[in-house]
Amino acid sequence: MQSVASPWKRMQYRAAHHRRTVEVICPTIATMPKSYYPPESNLKAPDGMRKTRTIIAEDPHWTLALVPRLSNLCLQSIASNFEENPIFEQLTPSQRRFIQERLSPSLPLHITANLISDGIYWKRCCELRWDLCDVSLYGHSWKRMFFERCLENMIELFIPDVTEPKTILDMVPHCRNYVKRLDICQLLTPVKEPQRAEEEELASEHEYEGPSVDHFDFGILLDKLTSLEELHLVYRVKHCGMNFEWKMFEMTDRDCESLAKALMSCKTLKLLRLHQSHIEDNKCRLLVKHLLDHPSLKVLDFSHNLIGDRGARGIGKLLSRGNLEVLNLCDNVIRDHGAKAIAHALSKNSTLLSLNLRLNRVRDEGGQAIGEALLKNNTLCHLHLGGNEVTAPTAVALSEALAQKNILKSINLSCNNLGEAGGKALQGAMSLNTSVTECDLRLTEVDEQIVAFINQVVWTNESLEEERRAREKTDK
């Protein structure tokens, strides 16, 4: 065997485009001298011997099949039997990552919720359920994203008198420590059973006495979410199609009462946004009544509703008995009396930083009252009075505050007919002001030269503000 083996030792290396192979090449019979011919019996390779061995050179981890480590076998066993025997806290960080990469995303939440920490497992769960997963919107926490979106979906698909409240209450023990924000885009109404022809005739003569159009009762949930800080609500039904009814797009009295009590019980809430829900004065006053002296509420957004002067008076009371920093009442029906009530509270307030009254009807009486309140207020930085039918008298009142106090940083008076007199008053005030870095005077009938002068002052103030911030940063 050894006497004929020397010709078989010649090796030839061939390079492929994407991978290299090392082959043991047998010399062909046509090219071999007769004396080199091995016996016929030796031309057959032994059983199991491979003539070609492939090496994936670009894979640094490539190796021949080896017996796996016992530790890896144990970890794989833990991952495969995690539901029967959940072992996680006793493992090292690298072992935990190994387990999270192999656990099934369909494991019951009562096992994983309070055991598996934030990481690759919850990322896999999120990406399996939703196509768009922007974790930056959730404080870069995949676990928070998972539980917030799961709870939001359950509430948005809750059908009163059909869905059992227990389905949501069973979720609470798993998610209460991780849910910081709820953004509810729809709230379904009870299913209305189809009426027969005779019932339709009776309904035309008398009011239909079916189930009330109430929505999900937040009273069973909010007090149990111990980490909830933000609540965004819209009382509407998306994609209702031909089943459209106006009642689908408004909050009922019972909805308002249950929500008000729930908000009072949620002591950690910092932001409440309740918009596009047809909230009128009575509902607004009821909500505000339960928010008085709330220990943590900082931001209140009642934009795009039907709040009038009575509701504005209630909100003025909340400014006096609360710690609000941002108040948004954009696109309501507040007029001069409501604006005066808010201005009165503003003159005594020491916490509010931003006030948005855009698209109301405060007119000059309300605008002048707000301007006078600014002379007494020392905290308000952002004021929006765009589209409020204010004219020159309001501009004059605001100019006095701008000239005497350097507190306001942004003011928006767009879409109001301020005229030449209002423009000149603002020009004189801005020449003395060093704090305003944003001033919107579009569509105000103010002379273009005056607008250019005010813009130049704003740019100068903005440059000074940037320099001040740079100095503070270097000092730190």
From TrEMBL:
<dbReference type="GO" id="GO:0005856">
    <property type="term" value="C:cytoskeleton"/>
</dbReference>
<dbReference type="InterPro" id="IPR052410">
    <property type="entry name" value="DRC5"/>
</dbReference>
<keyword id="KW-0206">Cytoskeleton</keyword>
<dbReference type="InterPro" id="IPR001611">
    <property type="entry name" value="Leu-rich_rpt"/>
</dbReference>
<dbReference type="Pfam" id="PF13516">
    <property type="entry name" value="LRR_6"/>
</dbReference>
<protein>
    <submittedName>
        <fullName>Dynein regulatory complex subunit 5</fullName>
    </submittedName>
</protein>
<keyword id="KW-0963">Cytoplasm</keyword>
